[in-house]
Amino acid sequence: MSIEPTILWTVIIGLALGSFALRFVFIGLMGGRSMPDWLMRHLRYTAVAIIPALVAPLVVWPAPTGGEPSAIHLAVGCATLAVGYFTKNVFAAMGTGAVLLVGYLSLFS
Fold this sequence. Notes:
Largest sheet: none
Number of strands: 0
Strand content: under 5%
Transmembrane segments: 6-31, 43-61, 90-108
Pfam families: AzlD (PF05437)
Number of domains: 2
Keywords: Membrane, Transmembrane, Transmembrane helix
InterPro entries: Brnchd-chn_aa_trnsp_AzlD
Protein name: AzlD domain-containing protein
């Protein structure tokens, strides 16, 4: 499947301009001003919303299994969630998840 170069470059330039515009709104226009309290309160939850959205598809439909759910990945995801919930420590949760995933995959695969 071949994409016509004109269409490809139009899409690339359009995405670049859109990305620049999104960043400029916050950095260029709001850079010298203090943000309102209501906006800062909402921005505090950005990472909490984005990180699970990036990780959840990798746990539920992992690429090594061809997109099929895997008991190992689901078990490690649940254990990581439990450690994060009870310890309130993101590094402990990430470390637990990494160790368990490597351990379970080497043990059961």
